[in-house]
Write a structure and sequence with these properties.
Layout (H helix, E strand, L loop, with lengths): L5 H6 L3 H17 L30 H11 L1 H13 L2 H5 L6 E7 L17 E10 L4 H67 L5 H36 L22 H11 L1 H22 L4 E10 L7 E9 L4 H71 L5 H36 L5
Antiparallel strand pairs: 1-2, 2-3, 3-4
Helix pairs in contact: 2-6, 3-6, 4-6, 6-7, 6-9, 6-11, 8-10, 9-10, 10-11
Amino acid sequence: MAKKSELGQRFGIIPALEVCFIVLFCFLRGAAGSPQDQLPPTTAPESGSSLRAAPAQGTTPLAKLLEEAERNNPQYRAAYHAWRASTQIPSQASALPDPQFVIQQLNVGSPRPFAGFTNSDFAYLGVGVSQDLPYPGKLRLKGEMAQRDAAAAREHLQSALRSVIEQLKTAYFQLAYELEALAIVERNGKLLDQVEKIANARYRVGQGNQQDVLKAQLQQTRLLREGAMHHQEHWRLQAQLKQILNRPPGSPDITPEQLVETPLNYTVDELLERVRTQNPDVRTQEEMIRRQGLELELAHKDFYPDFNVQYMWQHTAEQFRDYHMLSFGVRIPVHRGRKLRPEVAGAAEELSRARREYEARTQQAYFDVRDQFVAADTSAQLLKIYREGLIPQATATYDAGLAAYQASREDFETLLGSFLDVLNLDIEYWRTLAEHETALARLEQLTGISLP
C-alpha cells in the first residue's frame, strides 16, 4: 500500500483520494469567495441565435451615428458645399458677355474737357454701347459643360457620403470586435486562473510538477499582453470614430451594439448590374465623358467667327443734328494651325482619356464587388462552421480535458492546448463576424444597396 502523506495520515485517506479532496477544497473555496472570484462557465455560439440575450445598456445604435456623420462630417459637408457652388455656374457660363458702355468727347484747339465744344463743327460728345455675340451654339455648349461639372460634383458628393458611411461602419464593427475580444480575454483569464489553481493543488500533493504551474502562469501573462493590445486598438478606434463624427477628442466614448450577422440576399450578378447605375465613382466618370464630348464640340465651334455689335450717339451743337452710328464687327479665327487645330486635338485626347478612365473605374468596381462578395460569402460559411462545429467541439474537448486532468488521466500540455483552442476559436469567430459586416459595408458603398 502506498505510503500516506501527513494529510492522509491525519484524515485516513489514500493519496488518490487526497488529490480529489484538495481539488474539491479549492473549488469550494472559490465558490465561497467574492463575486469577482467566481468563474463563469464557458459559452459557445449557438447556431441561429444571438450570443447576447439583450443589448447592453448605454450602447449607441449604428443608425444614430450614421445620421450624426451626415450632419457633422467635415469631408461630406465640404463636398456638399462644393456641389452647391457648382450648381450656380451653368447660368453664368451660358450668359452673354457683359456689354461695354463708351463715352467719347472730341475737342478742337484745346486738351481741356469740353473746351471749344461750341465754336467748332468737329467737336462732339458721344455715348455708345457694344455687345460681343459668340457664334450660335457656343454659349449653350459652355452651359451644358457646366451642368456636367455640377452633375459630377453631385456624384462626388454621393461618393463622399458613401465613403464616410463605409469608414464609420468599418470602425464601428472593429470596435465591437475589440470589445468582444476584451471580454473573451477576461473570461478566459478567469478560467485559466482556475486551471492554475488545480495545477498548483496537484503540485502541492506531489501529483503534478512545477512546470505545469509555471506554464499556466505564463499563459496568464500572455493574456495580459493580448488584453493590452486590444485596449490599444480600442482607443485608436474610439479616436477614429470621433474624427469621423467631428466630435471633440474629450467627448464620451462610443459603445457599439453587439455584432449580429447580416444576411446578404443578393447574387453577385445582381450586385454587378448595380455598378454602372449606382456606383458614384463610375457615374462621375460618365459625366466626365459627356463633358469632354461637349468640350470637343466647342473646340470645333471655335473655327467659326464671333461677332460684335456697337451703337454710338454723337452730339455736336444745337444747330447741328445728332449722329447715330451702328457698327457690326466679326472676329476671324485666323490662327487655325497654331491654335484651333491643337485645341481640337487636345480635346479629342481628353475625351479618349475620360473613356479609358471610365473603363478602368468600372473594371475596378467589378473587381471590388466580386472580391467583397467572395469575402462576405466565405465569412458567412466560416461563421456557420464556427457556430455549429469548431467552437462546440473545442468547448467539449476542453471540458472533458479538464475533468480528465483533475483525475490524472491527461497531462497539462493537452489541457492547455484545449484551452487555447477555445480561446482562439472564440476570438476568431468574432473577428470573422466583423470582417463579414465590413465586407457588406463595402458592398453597400460600391453598389448602393441598403442592408438592414
